[in-house]
What we know:
elongated
Amino acid sequence: MHYCFDAWMARNFPNIRFERxxxxxxxxxxxxxQAEDVKxxxxxxxxxxxxxxxxxxxxxVYCKDGKRRGSHEHTSFEFLSYEFRVRRAKSRAGGYFDGFxxxxxxxxxxxxxxxMRLWRLCRWTTxxxxxxxxxxxxxxxxxxxxxxxxxxSALLPILRGLDEHLARWARRKYKRLSNSRDQAFRLxxxxxxxxxxxxxxxxxxxxx
Length: 208
């Protein structure tokens, strides 16, 4: 792809910025006309290299935000498990504005929730809360490092779901809690008060 695409773009469209990861590419254009022209040119280039663009994923996207208020068929896209679309953001001055920003994609958020369920933490009744934290934290930290690098607030609801799994664990482990979700969460809240950094998501301000 370096010869087929990167070097070719540098020669033919030196003013067009782009990012490429393997065969996924995002090219930045200043107008719809330019985007359509670049898209057609890339399509021809790929055919010369006996390749072709994905018919569903390849599209022109309008980066709608507080300043670009027009309309277009597509106003969002996914790249490297992030979804780019208009989002409310806070300025350095403390006000709010609509920017075209990335956050973890809905598809990836669903995958992380599914992975969390597959851990089946509620069955680890021979383990202590500290042992659960020792196993879970490296995985959570990896998610935070990647998906929380940009627009972390979109990741926090996913991490908050871990407390539901911990509450189910507590209800299975302690008979006195078996019939009470509220009491299971009280146990987690006590643990949080004594060790607020026990779990990665607690350190980020997510409270049980």
